[in-house]
Amino acid sequence: MVAAGLSPGPRSFHGLVAAHVLAGNAEGAMQSLRRELSSGVRPLHETFVALVRVFAKKGLSTRGMEILAAMERYKYDIRKAWLILVEELVKNHYLEDANTVFLKGAKGGLRGTDDIYDLLIEEDCKAGDHSNALTVAYQMEAYGRMATTFHFNCLLSVQATCGIPEVAFATFENMEYGGEDYMKPDTESYNWVIQAFTRAMSYDRAADVAELLGMMVEDHKRIQPNARTYALLVECFTKYCMVNESIRHFRALQRIPGGTEVLYNEGNCGDPLSLYLRSLCLDGRPVELLEALEAMANDNQSIAPRAMILNRKYRTLVSSWIEPLQEEADVGFEIDYVARYIEEGGLTGERKRWVPRRGKTPLDPDEFGFAYSNPIETSFKQRCFEELKLYHRKLLITLRNEGPGILGDVSEEDVRRVIERLKKLVVGPKKNVVKPKAASKMVVSELKTELEAQGLPTDGTRQVLYQRVQKARRINRSRGVPLWVPPVEDEEEVDEDLDELISRIKPEDGNTEFWKRRFLGETRNYLCEEDSKEDENQVGDDTKDKPAKEPNHHLQMIGVQLLKDMERTPVSSKKLKRMPEIDDDEDWFPEDPIEAFKVMREERMFDVSDMYTTADAWGWTWEREIKNKMPRKWSQEWEVELAIKIMHKVIELGGTPTIGDCAIILRAAMRAPLPSAFMPILQTTHSLGYKFGSPLYDEVVLLCLDLEEIDAAIAVVAEMETCGVKVPDETLDKVLASKRSGNSALPPPTEE
């Protein structure tokens, strides 16, 4: 153009600058601007904006500010360019420069857009810059746009991770009681505050979380929990050893697709999913443990190594809840403890020590170089007994509250028997302390039984056995070991008539509709009916001469019962003088309690719709059935069945049970006895690369022969040969002999 005698105008130079900007050449664009200015041409507004954009992309905020200053000299409006500079700096991850540019412009009187305010507050909070986010929020409110739930949630996300939950709770209270709908807390607001309390390192925060939980339930018509809410509640109640509550919320979480992944949280914050699995194991709850593992399988969530930590006896969550607790499994061969010590790195100093250490400050479970020593587990057997006791205690309380009428038309003797039976089931039978029998009065069989139970030889004459028993007792006394006594088997009483009467007691836990009707006096209460009958009998013939003042109310309300109880309690004359007389027309209610509740409903001081539980508010339709279901009695067969399922599920999820786990489950199956479980356990053990010692296999085979399960014995022998385990000739001969005798015992085939 110059060679042709044409002078380039501002549009021509703008095209040149724009070309450099599109190519990302900031220096080329600046040189073009300088050339334009030296030619005496006034640059266009768009030219300056393009330069601001390219400098922002390169993170050159100072150069961008210089361009804005140049625009001011040319009397251009710099607001648009300033907004572009801030936005591009944020998008290209120059957040600190973006904050500086924004605050300088805001102090100069420039007003940002809603999008810029939202973007800066959100990005500042993601980066943990609470101070700048708060400053931007103040600038936004100064220009007339009030902070909404979105902005408060951004601030809460930073406050929840600062380690001081009171800061987050103060912001939450500002939202809750601020009075405006646009700033009311939503589900995420509750999530951030629950997280702040759950992960605080100060002291027990379970009460604070329970308070938040109550507030959220009260506001259930507006907000409902999501997967993150349930995951945080499970994490909280697990860390504070409130296993029942963590199970309740996990059951809600597992019904949300991907819920276990949210709980796992990529292993951060102590791996809450593994902590939950371990807490179920420590509390002796394999049924809930299996539910959790199945939920993980549905979400394709593998089991973390933290969940598979070993206890001191080298058992994992697969078997550490099976009795005997805290005992190493008998795997059929002698364990080389020196080789194990060397394998664990004892010679090189890599072997981890247990925590907490005795007499020293307990270390964190994740302390480098230390292995976590978990407390002794509760056995599944003990847990079943405890749950049955709690259930029968609930039935006893229900019977006392409802009265004998709940049992139907029964005699007083039957009621007394039911109460005694329930008390016996709750407290347990009275056990007298069994003392060992004098050795001089014991017969040979009794002497042999005591010696055999203590692992002592049982050969010799009666005099030898007697001396051996006496010596063993003296040694036990000197060591402080209790003397051996023959085990007393508890004979379980079976009374079908009593069980049928007890089954009529229906606890109404979780049945909100029932308790609503009961409170309003719309359901029967047998206890109150009996009280009214007794009152009528006591009055006797005197009531015949007196006219009836009021019609009898055949229904009783809980509120009426409470008022009657208050009237029955004696009050001294001094207290009566001290009690002020209430004479306020606004608080006036009818004397009849039923009419009083009616007035309260009409005045909306009391609303039936406000009577609900957490299960009602959050749609836990499954909880009522679980609460009122009678716990299943413990049995060795059920325990083995659960253990096998858990072992298979753990392997499916990527975990590796130890050989001790397999041996414990096999021993439990032998105690049952459950021959059908021997082969699955042995096959799973061999698939993991483990092999038991020959004596354990012999015990299994001989037990099958004693139970006349010849096919099971043959299958075990075949499995041993397949896996390269040598079968002793004596064992093989016994199996073959049993096979022949079994075939000879069969009836001859009938000739057609």
TrEMBL record:
Taxonomic superkingdom: Eukaryota
Keyword Ligase attributed: no
Pfam family, one: SAP
InterPro entries: SAP_dom, SAP_dom_sf, TPR-like_helical_dom_sf
Region annotation (Disordered) ranges: 529-550
This protein's record includes keyword Magnesium: no
Residue ranges, compositional bias (Basic and acidic residues): 541-550
Ranges annotated as spanning the membrane: none
PROSITE patterns for this protein: SAP
Biased composition (Acidic residues): 529-539
Domain SAP intervals: 439-473
Keywords (A to Z) from UniProt: Repeat
Protein known as: Pentatricopeptide repeat-containing protein
